[in-house]
Write a structure and sequence with these properties.
In chain A, 64% of the residues lie in helices and 5% in strands. Chain A is mainly α. Chain A has three domains: 90 residues, Orthogonal Bundle (Fumarase C, Chain B, domain 1); 238 residues, Fumarase/aspartase (Central domain) (Fumarase C, Chain A, domain 2); 63 residues, Ribonucleotide Reductase Protein R1, domain 1. The longest helix of chain A is centred in the first third of the chain and has 37 residues. At the A-B interface, helix 5, strand 1, strand 2, helix 7 and helix 9 of A face helix 5, strand 1, strand 2, helix 7 and helix 9 of B.
Chain lengths: 433, 433, 433, 433
């Protein structure tokens, strides 16, 4: 966890104080259920809620002796509750507390991420509609293709993050389970009703079959989903970095008045936020791997997953939270330059319209192969002139073309609006009506 | 693709013949829709279906010249269809064909994987019920914990693979989309109705917004899901490898009469199938990474994803298909040794019952901390005797214990069936009623 | 292994024929050594060399029965050699053959890769000297920085691949070891002299301590090194893709006469080779992971590494061989456009010289902070004019500047050659004298 | 960075205070060299050393305004040095400071790691010699193979970590370079002599060609090497976890008096340190990936590597330092149980000697295939009896065996010491004379 890439609400979820508070609630709810079942006195359950307190430093102190965090916690709570504390944790095992706590932390973290995504989606939608019909060149392979609109680019991002939102909702469900099933998951010393009660109180589902631990395929799927979302963050970040390149400069990250781009070159305005997002995406992506390696625990469990999760639990969620928020800010404040977009679109001498001419020739009766050759030989001249020669002019002078197409027909093929007639269709697909 | 780790049905999906057949169907259906819209003659559409043929070698030959696979394919089909072939591919771009084809291949591959999982689930269920009450020791950290049943182990695996099946159904939905949207996804030269028609005919959904390509977050999520499934394969494989260890030997892979375990040591019977599965799982897991790196294509697309998918498309699905089938065979034919399970369970001198004694002491009024110390001091003696001393005997001789618990009460704590009273509950949760 | 991304010499190393030939040589050399030690008759050793033959199909047939590849091989060779074949493989274990064979295959593969790198280095050097003083803009963050030369870019790539070559030499040494140490590596039934003899004959070093297998940390380091090299391939590929962007177009992959860039857009000339290399790099990089997961084999060995290596052994070396050769071709035939480089360099109105002005002001006695502010305020105007306004003109009109610097002094700061005075130094560092 | 998995010396390297101190030294040494060259006044260089101070909080404060860490640092130092501070950083760029600082931090971190490895190697050597001839069963596939000694296991680990040490020395060399080459690496505004001076003072080599940044293939190779070392940590950890399994129990992590194994089961002694190391190894391994993705920076550099390195720089080195130290402690204090080793070795009824019988039969004139069948049919009976029947007894009763081998000859084949005659050879190879 790096302070500069962290936001306080997400950090708070992973602080010791939060963790022990969740542990306490799990234990206290479990004792309630045990009392209801008559296994422990109802007074004990009440006493735990009433007198239950813990102190992070004292727990750390005890853990240094016993080398076991849950025992240290229980000992500290017992110091405050007194004799009735012995009714806590009856028939439970440490992992009942640890794994259920992790489930609570991850669901809370996911709720923040979902809220982050809602803000990002809102920003994308606003900017998409703003630029719904702002023409810009579509590029495949980094090479000018045919016209699109800047709104379409953002609509694509919106659709991608909406899918990511759905994936995240599914991933949340994956890890939102509670296990209070005892030493090896058989409920030998604890009634399954306790699990059901704690699950309900903590906002979780019951884990159908646990083996001291909640199975780690759930967490693997969860972190893999975060990794996919991070890859989408990278995609949009890379798009913006490309748009801000000196030669392209169709959009720019907002540059605040006091900001300095380079200690050496005062003229620089660098896309550092999206570059930063590119790096953060790499990190979130990498966390999926150890999460997957955690799945194959030995027999009913080993504890190799624990050190991994102590790292990636906070790091993946904190970093993705920060990244989504930063990306939202970038989108909201993005400086967009429609004039430059048009200038770039025009810079290739009309080559972007080559396909429409190809189709026109085909429809006028020339074979596809011949049409291709005719258009390509003219297009290559334009290409080599670096856009100084206009494709339309060349075509008007090519007898193989003029034999089939009139000047007016040719000119119609260079009409920009032609390309945008289905923008509405796509927007309706993406944003609904 | 390694022949020894491949099965023919899955391999067939990825052969050039299959790919070109799908390309042909996409083009022919698209031409149907174009004819229906009046863009091309209906006769052309009919001619394509009637005379459309291709030859893999001829396509390869053409591709060596034009260095573009879809153009090579179209040229070869045109050689067979004749002049009307020029109405094929009108307003389309290569990726319309390539990406929709990949969607078809991946959905078909997934259908095989789903069938594989059904067989695995059936095998797990059968063996789980067979051993529903076969006692075996539950192990955490590789150390004896408390009793479970062998059926519970398999029920856990069943639940895990049922989750994986659901994930796979979701992953299939992710990649089952069709894009026929033209050069940069704007439908500039092709009506969206064509896309809708082809999608329906090929069993796909329409991609809401494409950018020459179908967005690769879909494929990233798909391959990440295969990676998680592979991790579960590894988990079960590792479990069986552990059970077959010489010192444990509670279960064994089926060993066929002619088989040789070692060229040097004739006595060996090695868990080579599950070791092999462990390695294959590593491979399928690794394929998720380049799939995620494919997401951030430049602008409307670059083609860096293509070489990756030519490799991992076949390799991930073929390997996982093989692994699931192999794992199913291992489960179906697994040799299970209940007597050895019981022998192992007993070998620790009754230590596996230590928790129940701890709880009994607590309930008899001793503090949790004191109870723990009393049980631990006896347990450590048993441990150090390597199970030669029985825990029950020591407890019967410990005045701190006998002050609170009678002999009969103590003996009741060493009853094995006590641990299995909720097996039914768990089986109902996992397998339903 | 994908034919389209494979070259025959590297493929040949991994074919069954090659593998069995190496097996045969290992066995025959080992029998020689055994004969020399008097363990087996010298006639037997001679007979093996004289009559030793194998047939891939027959071996496969036998393996289907015995399910063990080395036993199948030995059986087939025995069918040809006759009775004296029983002296082969005395005291050896299968892994002695398999692991030593893998060492031979990997060293041969590495020799091809080293030759590939030599060709790449040669191409880079030639083009670097060709463009040693071709001015081009240096870009950080995708934004124009200060002038460099195109030769410097290639010199950087040269230095990087020279490092990679050294890494590859070290990686070759890692995996070039021979183990003939018997069932668990103790030489219980085979004299260490046999190992020494085979090692020498096969061009390997003796593995100091093996445990049936050669330890897999060696292979992990090897494949990790290939992954790093692949990352450098990606770096250079990405550089070229950037240079070929429509708006930049400072260099281009060679575009052959018959080639078609797009089935839909006849004007396209796409950097498909370097995009392809980007994808291939992702694959080679991903193979490092399962190789690392192979390290932690159980006890003296398990066989989980085997399926991984059957895949990544060929796939990583074949793909990297192809990638290096393709990259070499791209570099050799790269179309370089110095005029466009100069045009791009000039397009920012001289902003690229801002640092020199900053330094001049500082040296003229203005504080660093004030100098920065003075230059930045002028630079921002140039930036916002999209290079229409020249920085030099603005500075000449800024009284804070002219108070300290004369026109001539200012103009000197806009001299391009100033930036290249140390190109020789760098070239000498990289290429020697 | 997780406090529980961190050690103070390594943490200190990565603290802001250390980083700024290194920045200061780089800047001050650079100013010395500039003064020597006559570019800046010698008094300025002296003033910087004399009055140069910084305050972490003040730097943070400035950075919040200027959003650039190096500028913030320079500003703060200037506040203390006064007017002469303007001679600092002349002709340099931020990355000159940042990348050279990272090199210093990584070399210092590596020195700690090398010291860690020396301690680990010493511990392994001591324990290896202690158990040089302690017999234990060698296991392939988890199945008993033939006898080895416990010392051989440790000698293998020693040899593996000695290789890792060499790799780490090479990796240290990779990243120990200094770049003071200005905005795009051309030395346009700074003499290469400054770089040479700073390099020497900071204990680094000169980077032959930098491009504002030191090329990231160096760091990729570095972190990949740490990942391989982590994989070796995992291997030894997994070995110990296996040895501590209840059924095996040939060795155990030291268990301190106050320690509690389980909150629920007082009898447990779990290998939690080595399980923890298994998880930590997964983390260090995963960090190699983003480091490799960092290589392909755009053009002369982008800053996407920075956020990655802020995380993995500290996390990888701190975690590996902790892991090596923990592993050393585990090895030093490992409880080894030779009696149990012998008991396990004997538990298979002598099957571990099967190969020697096979060889004896072959040498007595029976074909390899027949010998194998004879031994296997007896071995399988022993196997099925779970070691209750002794292989020697069965062989003595098998006429096919007794026809070729006398009782004495058979018994000689079951001599344990036979297997250890080359232990000395191996120890000499590994540890020298």
């Amino acid at each position: 966890m790096i302070p500069r890439y962290s936001r306080p609400d997400m950090v708070a979820i992973w602080e010791p104080e939060s963790k022990f508070q969740i542990w306490f609630e799990i234990e206290a709810h479990a004792t309630d259920a045990l009392a209801e079942l008559g296994v422990v006195p109802k007074e004990a359950a009440k006493a735990i809620w009433a007198k239950g307190k813990f102190d992070v430093e004292r727990i750390d102190e005890i853990e240094r002796e016993v080398k076991h965090d849950v025992i240290a916690f229980l000992t500290n709570v017992a110091e405050n509750v007194g004799e009735e504390a012995r009714f806590m944790h009856q028939g439970m095992t440490s992992s009942d507390v640890l794994d259920t706590c992790l489930a609570v932390q991850l669901t809370r973290a996911t709720d923040i991420l979902l809220a982050d995504m809602d803000k990002l989606l809102a920003a994308l939608k606003t900017r998409a509609f703003e630029h719904k019909l702002t023409p810009t060149i579509g590029r495949s392979h980094g090479i000018h293709g045919e016209p699109v609109t800047f709104g379409l680019k953002l609509a694509q991002a919106y659709a991608e993050f909406e899918r990511n939102r759905e994936r995240l909702v599914a991933a949340r469900k994956e890890i939102a389970t509670c296990a209070i099933s005892g030493a090896v998951g058989t409920f030998a010393n604890i009634d399954p009703k306790v699990e059901a009660h704690v699950a309900e109180k903590m906002g979780l589902e019951v884990e159908p079959v646990s083996t001291q631990v909640i199975p780690r395929d759930r967490h693997a799927q969860y972190f893999a989903t975060l990794a996919v979302i991070a890859s989408s963050v990278e995609r949009l970040a890379v798009e913006i970095r490309h748009l801000q390149r000196t030669e392209v400069l169709e959009a720019e990250e907002y540059f605040s008045p006091g900001q300095k781009g380079s200690s050496a070159m005062p003229h620089k305005r660098n896309p550092i936020l999206t570059e930063n997002l590119t790096g953060l995406a790499r990190m979130v992506r990498s966390f999926a791997l150890p999460a997957m390696e955690n799945v194959a625990l030995w027999h009913e469990r080993d504890i190799s997953h624990s050190s991994v999760e102590r790292m990636i639990g906070p790091d993946a969620t904190i970093t993705l939270d920060f990244a989504l928020a930063r990306l939202t800010g970038v989108v909201e404040k993005l400086l967009v330059y429609p004039e430059r977009m048009m200038k770039n679109l025009d810079r290739m001498g009309g080559l972007v319209h080559s396909q429409r001419v190809l189709l026109a020739l085909t429809q006028a009766g020339i074979s596809r192969e011949d049409s291709y050759r005719i258009v390509q030989r003219n297009a290559m001249k334009v290409w080599e002139s670096d856009g100084e020669i206009a494709l339309l002019d060349l075509l008007k002078a090519d007898p193989d073309v003029t034999a089939k197409l009139s000047e007016a027909e040719l000119e119609e093929r260079f009409n920009l609006d032609y390309h945008f007639k289905h923008v509405d269709t796509i927007f309706t697909r993406v944003f609904g009506n």
